Amino acid sequence: MKFRIRLAPTTFSGGAPAQRTLFSASESSPYAGGRAEPPKPKRVPAERALPGRPKAAAPAPRKPRAAEKPPSASDDSVPSSDGEDGVQTIAHELAKKQKEISVAEFFSKNRHLLGFDSPKKALLTAVKEAVDNALDACEEAKVLPDIEVEIKQLEQEDRFSLRVRDNGPGIVRAQIPRIFGKLLYGSKFHRLKMSRGQQGIGISAAGMYGQMTTGKPVRITSRISARRPAQYFEILIDTGKNEQVVAKEEEVADPGFSRGTEVELTLVGRWTKGRASVDEYLEQTAIANPHVEMVYTAPDGTKLKFPRGSKVLPAEPTEIQPHPRGIELGMLMKMLKETQSRRLSAFLHTEFSRVSTAVARRLCQTANLSDKARPKRVSHEEAERLFQAIQNSKFMNPPTDCLSPIGEPQILAGLKKEVRAHFYTAVTRPPSVYRGRPFQIEAGLAYGGEMTPKEGEETGAQEPVRLLRFANRVPLIYQQGACGITESVIDTAWRSYGLSQHKGALPLGPAVLFVHFASVWVPFTSESKEAIAHYPELTTEMKRALQEAGRRLGTYLSRRRNAETQMKRRAVFTHYVGEVASSVSRLTGEPRQALYDQLLKIAEKKTKAAELADRKVADGYDSIADLPSTIVIEEES
Predict the structure, then answer these.
(1) Would the CA dihedral through 139, 140, 143, 149 be positive or negative?
(2) Tens digits of residue pLDDT in 189-198
């Protein structure tokens, strides 16, 4: 800060000269720009000039103060400038308490949002995240997955050790700390392609939960080739910075497997059997992924093997560009600023799907923009006109090769492998579009078999059907009542298809319902990914798939009842056909055996529908001509 002091002569009424000090401040002064009034200069009294006395010298200019640093908004020690008394205001006191919060620190205090709100659910969520990552890695490497899951109970009753190993491609050394030690780090969030994991939170959140509850790091052993040693890491998370902390790193010559990744966690949990357990999650995973073989060792020593039901890998989905009807104005402006295209028409053609060169020019013309305009120079008003032109135009639906549905044969193979029933059917709907994002609905149904009530049990005592919900091949275990899939099942009129149903409830009967939602963007209701949102476009498509499966079940049950009726008629006739043949033989003199054979043929012809009950189809499809993708397995009796 610089000051200039200028002395100007002045004259009093007596004629004696006087000195007057003028004050000015430079632009770097804190008083510049109207921030505060500069202090008024004091008047210097002039001395009268006496004869024979020399004139008094002008006073020396005041030494300027040291330059002050301009206050910063991020400085916690900002002095108050609201008054001359220097008193701190409430706003300054509150400003001192404000600080940045990392995403890891947020989720560490709100872990219920990620599914770690109870010990039982936390153990299941940790298994789910590790298995989902293993399946994605194997499928991207085009390897049939072989997964080992082992849970051990430690000395403390509520502490468990979880180990998950896969035969995937492994992870390179440099990426291991980031993948397991940093939230929101991954390769799947920004791409429009169907995959199980999308946010980059799951496995690192499981490690963070184990660190918070036991203080132990997550242990990773990864090997990318049998000719190279494995990399072993022990990793913690600095929740304040959302950064990885490597506690230990070393090479392991022989980890016990040739290629793959092994993850081990120590966490607080609770292991149970039955519904909403680890056992049920792995069973449903085997149903939706029949190409997987899993070996599961429970804490009580029980070893379960889920054999591979199919050797066909899912089709590899293709990454697509965003659809123009699936973006908002802010996203469009962001894409305009970040694009490498030099022309607006080229930007629309290359950055979006289903936008040809002709369509791009038409959009520019509708928005009253030049197709040769620079995208980065498009103003806010011009971007809004372009956005309105996009919303008022019609486009082809986005390509569906970004989806990888399970498929009707694979659904039947999964259900038949894990559910003992007499009737199986599967439905795969054509792809649909919601908000510019493609999705596809699949449904499956298994009926009868071991689920059939015992003889003499009343229908009213039947339990609701078992509902299996899936999103991108991942089982949804919790929050069934808050899921759009459940709403679709309840809204379907199951009485028309042979199942009893109370108002506003799931249908009753010995059946298993299977519903799969496949999409590049799954509208979950929370970060824990446990339920699908109730969007009308989605629930309508789900109902159509369920209705098709219900019609096939209704046809089967109708034929089954007709077959049972005809079987009873045949049994009654054959019971008395011998006496009828004997009586007719005595009256006519015809041989009894010839009459018996002839009457038996007539009975079989009249009760031909009963032959459906004698049918046994163990493998293959289209067992009933007009019911596609359906398997009927009847008891030999």
Answers:
(1) negative
(2) 667 778 886 6
